Amino acid sequence: MASALRDWLDKPNTGRGISLATDDGGWDHRDYGRLASAARRTAGALIEAGVRPGDVVCVVLPTDFTCVETYFGVWAAGATVCLVTPPLFQDGDDYVAHVAAILRQARPALTVASADLAPLAARAMADAGLPGEPWLPRQAETEADVQPAGELAILQFTSGSSGAPRGVMVTWDNLEANCELIARTAGYQDGDVVASWLPLYHDMGLIGCFLTPISLQGDLRLLRPDHFIRDPARWIRCFATAAHTAAPPFAYAYCARRVKPEQLEGLDLSGWKMALIGAEPIDPHSLEVFAELLEPFGFRREAFKPAYGMAETTLLVTMDHPWRLPLAVRPDPASLAFGRPVEILEQHELGESSRGAKSGWIVGCGTPEEDVPVWIVDDDGNELAEGLLGEIVVGGPSACPGYYAGAEGKSTRFADGKVFTGDAGFFHEGRLFVLGRMGDSIKVRGRSVYVEDLEARIAEVTRLGKGRITVTAVPGAGQKGLALFAETNDAAWAPDVREMLRRRVGEDVEVTIIVGSGLIQRTSSGKPRRRYMWEQFQAGRMPAARRVE
């Protein structure tokens, strides 16, 4: 079951390995033989600490070789890995609360933390009611045999800001199937080099750019996210030898703003095979300005591989993998209603006409593979034909079985071996186009911000009760949007709410504020009918509603 992903621990290729970026601009390389030995000694220490096959081990470590060795040490011990993000921009209390929420659900047999993060991890353990102290990474004198594995390979917590994070159960079968799908659709060949700066606690960085190349014992060049932010040209320079990478759309636009051509002098990027784009709706402008920067150095637009995926499907669902230019379309916003045909006003392949094409444009994310079926369904779960807007549903061996410990999803749900994603999309010319979340959350820099969190903050700003406020994520083409429904006729608070939302979700999110009496409609269980309310407002069926400009 776990053999294809752990084989290298018994049969390491000492001619290849992982190179980690150092803070002084260099690289620290370790071959797979050295890494496998360290991982198996770490497994020995974990087993001595009481870790057994099937246990969950939470790991709170920065991206370094200790993290790599500990990760695979947990796997060698037969346990399930749950990577927890190190603190980024949160203050200590917020970070501790977030980690405690993860630990409360994961109930790990052991929580591993580095010496500098151990005090925060200890506070989180106490808040979660877990006994003991964080376990500092260490290695036994001898290498342990690789132990039989339990059912779960990974407990992948969704990258949200909600106070109640949910752990996706990723089985060994899920992970093996998705890694094979990634390698196949990426056109990965033996000897190809992968380069990434994505954080390992996020599914795209962990599975797409870390576990897949390591399971194939390919050379991997790994930077930390802060390395990329400080010097994005350093990432690009990797592709003088590397062939594959992945990043969200904002990263390509960031490179186009920050990198100067003179920083790339003498670089040959003609061997760059794949630049995957995912994690957010994709606008063609970000890709075009990146391509224009790198085209003089041999980069080709066909290397762009727009993709769609999520943690609940292990990672990848579709990738536009044929060697062709990405296709961008501009739908008529007025036609974006569930179960209705999407009217395409314009379309073009990526090129000069894509410059400036941001709001209203989206890029196709490829055609489903036979082993990963994708359907578009209406509110009743009936399959819709090409060209009709609905919810994206995913099946196949990469579809995960559910959330850990009985946690409940929000829009995303699991039924009959399928994942009902909670994302809105449609097929056009055989390609999947994704508009984004349908109601309960919005993607911001690769993280899900949940509307319940925003509602609580808005209630404070407006001094209205939470029952009088409903926020919904608004599916749009190439643009993120939020609609706020408030049962009041007084909107003097609107400027303060807009400023708060600007700080929380960014300036590129369009905010629509709607006030009036009797606006909020609920299900029989009392939950707000978020998307239905937006569609009713758009159709002019809310006579008491007034848009606040």
TrEMBL record:
Residue ranges annotated for the AMP-dependent synthetase/ligase domain, each copy included: 25-404
InterPro entries reported for this sequence: AMP-bd_C_sf, AMP-binding_CS, AMP-dep_synth/lig_dom, ANL_N_sf
Domain of life: Bacteria
Pfam families: AMP-binding
PANTHER family: DISCO-INTERACTING PROTEIN 2, DISCO-INTERACTING PROTEIN 2 DIP2 -RELATED
Family (UniProt): Belongs to the ATP-dependent AMP-binding enzyme family.
Listed name of the protein: AMP-binding protein
